[in-house]
Amino acid sequence: MDRNPPLQGILLLLNQLELVSGTTVAGTFYGIAFSLYCLYLHASIPRLREHDRRRQTQFMMTFSSMIMLCGLYYLVSNAWVIQDAYIKHANFPGGPFIYETTTYNTQPVIAVGLVCVSIIDISTAAIQIWRLWVIWSSIKYGRFVVIIPLLCFFGFVALRIRTVVLDLTLPIQNLANQDTKAHTAESALQATITILPTILIAGFLIFQSWRQRKLLGKSQLSAPYMNVVAILVESYTLESTWGIIIAALNSHEQPVTQFFGNTQSYIEIIAYLLVLYRVASGRAYESQRAHEPQNTRNNLSSLHWNHTATTESSDAITSGTDMNIRPTEKKSEPDINQIQGSPA
Predict the structure, then answer these.
(1) pLDDT per residue over 129-167, tens digit each?
(2) pLDDT tens across 165-218, in order?
(3) Minimal CB count within 10 Å: which of 58, 65, 187, 273?
(4) Which ranges are annotated Polar residues under compositional bias (predicted)?
């Protein structure tokens, strides 16, 4: 007969949150991400036939596939670990969750899972920094705007490497005694990397929208700017909220942190793919074009300076193509290899 006392209070809550968040909720979120991934691939395949976008599209499809594979491994490994703990070691003193924590750094599958989560976090954060760089580097002193987010990114990467190394090397007794300040700082930096670039990009586009209205006197020509702002804000609101909640809960050591921590990576993937899909499918600009007369569509639009089409400008924000939106300057289109960082 089992002599272990029934789980109660915080310990019971932790076991419940670990089971639900690591299986049902995580599977649901990954299913949403996978649907967006398939829709994005379907919308991007026609671009492979276009010579000027082929390399950019190939890079982004490969990059997205890598993130999806890391997310899939994290989902499967979590399910395997939870199955082992909750079925084979359900009577462990303190419950299956305590069994997981005591064997945390002895299972190679968990170690690989930590690396995959780090790849997702760092990759999605790097994309945000790169979008900010592409947008703001088009003005004279815009490069200085990237300094603070870039420092936050380097700090986040350093703290994440520290966390992974300690998780995999320290004994469980010493790991439990680690203070939460580093984890709180890491979560705060990660949230900042999501929120700050989004605000700066949106601010830049709103300013350009106002500038177009002032120069041309036609508010409808600045609509694509606001459409892109809406896409970024809508896509990253949930991820920003998730990051803020995790940072706040980490500082107070709340058990519900387990739920948000187990699902954060999937939220990041959803936000990342949502932007790519909406731009690849043309939703960044087609709603504005539907209300334009035919002669307006064939002439100058607010994102058509220096022969740069609206769709190309939307791609600049999401995947790293330069934007030429200044009517007073002429700037040659940059090499896609240099922009994408492609090794090809």
Answers:
(1) 998 988 888 788 888 889 999 999 999 999 999 988 888
(2) 888 887 766 665 666 778 888 889 999 999 999 899 888 888 888 887 777 766
(3) 65
(4) 310-322, 335-344
**What crossing angle do the helices spanning 181-216 and 147-169 adopt, rounded to 10°?**
150
User: Alpha-carbon distance 309 to 286, whole Å?
Assistant: 12
User: In 3-state terms, what secondary structure has residue 159?
Assistant: helix
Q: Name the residue range of residue 176's domain.
A: 9-289+298-339
In angstroms, the CA 66 to CA 73 distance is: 11
Cβ–Cβ under 8 Å, residues 190 and 243: yes
Q: Give the count of domains, the chain.
A: 1
Rounded CA gap, 286 and 92, in Å? 57
Closest to 89 measured CA to CA, from 15, 143, 141, 13: 15
Check whether 303 has a pLDDT greater than 90: no
Q: Which amino acid is at 289?
A: R
Written as six digits, the tokens of 70 are 């890391």
User: Largest alpha-carbon pair distance within the chain?
Assistant: 82
Tell me the C-alpha distance between 47 and 88, whole Å. 50
Which are the contacts of 249, defined by CB distance < 8 A and separation ≥ 6?
Answer: 256, 257, 260
Angstrom distances, CA of residue 120 to CA of 125, 145, 181: 8, 25, 23
Question: How far is 31 from 37, CA to CA, in rounded Å?
Answer: 10
Q: Is 170 inside any structural domain?
A: yes
pLDDT for the residue 125: 93
Amino acid at 77: S
CA–CA separation, 11 and 256 (whole Å): 11
pLDDT tens-digit series, residues 95-104: 888 888 787 7
CATH number of the domain at 306, please.
1.20.1070
